[in-house]
Amino acid sequence: MSVGAKFVQMFIAIGAFVAVMGVILFLADRVRNRRGEILQTIAFLLPATVMIAFGLLYPAVKTIYQSFKDANDRSFVGLDNYKTILTSSDQLNVLRNTALWVIVTPVLATLIGLVYAVLIDRARVEKLAKALIFLPMAISLVGASIIWKFVYDYRATENPQIGLLNQILKLVGLDTYRFLLTEPWNTFFLIIIMVWVQAGFAMTVLSAAIKAIPDDIIEAARLDGVGGMRMFRFITVPSIRPSLVVVLTTISITTLKVFDIVRTTTGGNFSTSVLAYEFYVQSFRSFNTGLGAALATLLFVLVIPIVIYNIRQMRQLESR
Amino acid sequence: MSASTTPVAAVAVPSPATTTTAEAKKRLTSPWASFAAAVIAILWTIPTAGLLISSFRPENDVKASGWWNFFTHPSVTLDNYRAVLKGSDTDLATYFVNSIVITLPSVIIPITLATLAAYAFAWMKFPGRDLLFVAVFAMQIVPIQVTMIPLLSAYVKPLLGPSLAGADAPGGGFYTIWLSHSIFALPLAIFLLHNFMKEIPAELIEAARVDGAGHVKIFTRIMLPLMAPAIAAFGIFQFLWVWNDLLVALVFGGGSQEVSPLTVRLAELSGTRDQAWHLLSAGAFVSLIVPLVVFLSLQRYFVRGLLAGSVKG
Question: Contacts of residue B145 in chain A, CB cutoff 8 Å?
């Protein structure tokens, strides 16, 4: 398809959508009685509800169902797929990596975001300082992965280096290091990429929370001679605790579902695969529908408790 | 970022008091604190800066020496950008167009539908309303991965009509990508916009009702103008999510050049040409430039909109 044809397709799609919705709303508006009310409710609600039912509810139920079937979606195999996940050494490695990602990423990103938010609070260049950290949030994880692959680039020690980290290693007299290939630490270097992206989110939310701490609390603490680290430890952190929890859980949920970084940097090789990536490989590369569905279901099951906790904390935050 | 970044909802923080006695609250602006902040800021910026500089260096320089040598031996070229955009083997220009064609409908459609649904949940009375709203809200927790195998088979073999996936599909296969992105955005969009809608005083709606205005009129004349900031905020958010998405495009676009966006092509280049840093660096910036411009020009709007939106449900 030519460039022109693609844009034509796009405008047709948008135009058709706007026209259909316009006509529906116009007609619904014509009828002015009890029936009209019902018609209007249907016109407002039905498209979104039908799409959610078709695209989220039905597939979720079907995936759970498929997770109990074999690779070709033919016969039932009971819990075999789950057994594979919990026993095969490849899959166990995936689970271990996923756990590492979900624990390390939120903790590091939140810690850095918090420290940075405190440090730049009310600084003269606060806006600029925030933008610098927040910027990685705007770019794709594919872009972020390429940026970091370049930082991690490996060449033998005697050659000139083009990767920044290995250049530093060389400067201090160490051998260059295969950051993305050497197990088990390569997973940690992939996690760094996600921390780099998520710290900006943590910083933004926590900075807003810090600014919302009432002045008189800080004033009182200061009069009592509290300052510096103790202010941070005993006033700032307890005051923004709910926001901290929300940030931690939100980043956990995001991290659990991330697959772009692993795919772009290592392609899941060198024991770096995670649950969300393994799901993709099994479903769309190995065409093992059953195992893919089981991995997706497991992802779902792991997300649920974090989401529930996250929502409850958010509720608390709102009611304050 | 809808599914993977349910985060927005988390920005539930009271808005900062604007009139503070800044003097009294002045923090430890010790030199050490400033120094530590500067170190973090530099650490966060250097990786991007290094790649940006590399993208303007000649191919031989990029391959032979680190980007920091640019400061001692500066030489600038646009060849890398020319090569990735027009070169027959990378051809990012085509993928750039695909990204635009994918993104615009995937932003407009879900936001329209979500605004309508949010209005219904906020201001229309019908049986089972609260239950349905909770159900929609709960759909946010479904990771998109869970939906993909059944959705793809539904697209390939729909109950009626021709296959919607693949090169022969109507619209060249864009429809399934648009539809998928729209669906995945809906629960969070409805939830957030509903929160905004509830903020609008009920008297306003009731007064309009008494004057004989129907729901459609109230929606278009009163709600939409008042909702503009919220809609814009979510629009930017959805824009960034769709533009930066890899998974949805990969699964439903099948990796074909006809419909794949920049992210898919870049990920591919990163896997197959991982030493061609002159191309990868320029390619990365071709994909970054649009979200960066959108984000930097609308950042304030974006953050403010989201902070306000989820304060009260």
Answer: 257, 276, 279-280, 295-296, 299
CB contact under 8 A, A150 and B281: yes
In degrees, rounded to 5, the angle at the alpha carbon of residue B50 between the alpha carbons of residues B49 and B51 is 95
Bridge partner residues of A76 (DSSP): A69
Confidence of residue B166 (pLDDT cuts 50, 70, 90): low
Tally C-beta pairs within 8 A across A and B.
Answer: 383
DSSP helix/strand/coil, A283? helix
Structure confidence at residue B91 as a pLDDT band (50, 70, 90): confident
Cβ of A131: how many Cβ atoms within 10 Å?
A: 16
From chain B, pick out residues whose CB is under 8 angstroms from the CB of A276: 143, 145
User: Looking at chain A from residue 233 to 292, which residues have their Cβ under 8 Å from any Cβ of chain B?
Assistant: 243, 246-247, 249-251, 253-254, 256-260, 263-265, 267, 276, 279-280, 283-284, 289, 292
Whole-angstrom CA distances from A227 to A203, A209, A234 are 21, 19, 10
What span, in angstroms and rounded, lies between the C-alpha atoms of B119 and B117? 5
CB atoms within 10 A of CB B247: 24
- Token reading at A103: 């624990």
Return the pLDDT at B140: 83
B259-287 residue pLDDT tens? 999 999 999 888 887 678 989 999 999 99
Buried b (16+ CB within 10 A) or exposed e, B120-133: bbbbbeeeeeeebb
- Split at pLDDT 50, 70, 90, the class of A94 is very high
What sign does the dihedral A157-A159-A161-A162 (CA atoms) show?
A: negative
SS3 A76: strand
Residue B230 — pLDDT band, cuts 50, 70, 90?
A: confident
pLDDT classification of A137: cutoffs 50, 70, 90: confident
Are the beta carbons of B164 and B88 closer than 8 angstroms? Answer: no
Output the six-digit token pair for B54: 């590399």
Q: Give the tokens for residue A311.
A: 């929502």
Give one word for A270, left, alpha or beta, with left for phi > 0 and alpha for psi -120 to 50.
left
Predicted model pTM: 0.89
What is the token pair recorded at A286?
């190995």
Q: What is the pLDDT of residue A279?
A: 94
Kindly report, residue by residue over A23-60, the tens digit of the pLDDT: 998 888 888 777 788 888 999 999 999 999 999 999 99
Integer CA distances (angstroms), B225 to A168, A218, B208, in order: 55, 40, 15
Mean pLDDT over each residue of chain B, to the nearest integer: 83
Burial class of residue B22, CB neighbours in 10 A (0-12, 13-18, 19+): exposed
- Segment A198-227 shows an average pLDDT of 88
What residues have CB less than 8 Å from A91, skipping those under 6 apart?
A84, A85, A278
What residue has token string 């996690």? A191
Using the beta-carbon criterion (under 8 Å), do B47 and A59 form an inter-chain contact?
A: no
Report the distance separating Cα B68 and Cα B70, nearest Å. 5
